[in-house]
Design brief:
Elements (H helix, E strand, L loop, with lengths): L3 E4 L31 E5 L2 E5 L7 E4 L9 H5 L12 E5 L5 H9 L4 E6 L2 H10 L9 E5 L2 H6 L7 E6 L14 H10 E12 L3 H13 L2 E4 L7 E7 L7 H15 L3 H10 L3
Parallel strand pairs: 5-6, 5-8, 6-7, 8-9
Antiparallel strand pairs: 1-2, 2-3, 3-4, 9-11, 10-11
Length: about 270
């Protein structure tokens, strides 16, 4: 996957060290950058985001910048099977702004919010991943996702919440407690749905599912893709999953957006959700 890679953010630790003070009594520990370096790679017309490792944090087909290129990102939109016209959608973890851009373009009446802690990710999305500037419908907040969901001002405000929070090692969500997911649930309206990107072959998977089931009355998972990614859906209000009705809704979604929604329904049916 790593054909061409160039560093967009120079590691702060590579800066020349300042002369030591004459009065220093001991050697100071080396300065560590707050964030991992943001790096890019490209292959076959697709641009990938990394945090200084081989782990892919997001992707964009250069000729189709608003299309969710990766299958797991498409599955993160599975809440569309139940929510036709969302009024407010939020993403925790900007990545390459895939979900932010898609929701912004697909739902012209919706308020779209993205929450990202790393300012360098926001900057690279604006310069290299076609993230539109903030406007009356779009806001990108530089802040901790936990602070966002814990803020009472955001409670009962969202129809859909998409959670994709990974660090440079990309082996498990950086926020995974029952308290975090309870705060996520509080941000959703009564019929709201949360989607979460997990790793099915990692110990973090069971931990996250347990925490989600503590906070939500109903949690289901789609089949694994990309040799590891599993998207879980958590419902603020439990409901029966009417497969025939979902198949009809999937057909409409595919006609409108070209998303492979029919495969989501097949996955839910095969899992006995």
């Amino acid at each position: 996957m790593l054909i061409k890679r160039k560093s967009i953010e120079k590691e702060e630790s590579s800066r020349p060290a300042k002369p030591a003070a004459k009065t220093a009594a001991r050697k100071l520990a080396p300065y560590k950058p707050k964030f991992a370096p943001v790096t890019l790679s490209e292959q076959d017309g697709v641009r990938y985001l990394h945090f200084g490792t081989e782990w892919v944090q997001g992707a964009m087909r250069i000729r189709k910048p608003d299309w969710p290129e990766l299958e797991y990102a498409q599955q993160m939109m599975a809440w569309m099977l139940w929510i036709d016209t969302p009024r407010s959608v939020a993403q925790l973890g900007l990545g390459t702004a895939t979900l932010t851009k898609f929701c912004y373009r697909t739902y012209p009446e919706a308020q779209v919010t993205a929450v990202e802690l790393n300012p360098h990710v926001i900057a690279i999305c604006q310069s290299m991943f076609k993230l539109p500037p903030d406007d009356a419908r779009l806001r990108v907040l530089e802040m901790d996702a936990l602070d966002f969901v814990s803020d009472p001002a955001n409670h009962n405000s969202l129809d859909a919440l998409q959670v994709d929070l990974y660090d440079a090692t990309a082996r498990g969500p950086v926020l995974d407690s029952a308290e975090f997911y309870a705060a996520c649930a509080a941000c959703l309206r009564e019929d709201g749905i949360m989607t979460v990107n997990l790793f099915g072959d990692h110990p973090s998977y069971a931990k996250n599912l347990k925490a989600m089931k503590y906070a939500f009355p109903q949690v289901v998972s789609l089949p694994e893709v990309h040799e590891g990614n599993v998207v879980a859906l958590a419902f603020r209000r439990a409901r029966p999953l009417d497969i025939p009705a979902l198949e009809g809704r999937a057909k409409a979604i595919h006609a409108q957006t070209r998303l492979p929604a029919k495969t989501w329904v097949k996955g839910l049916a095969s899992a006995g959700a």
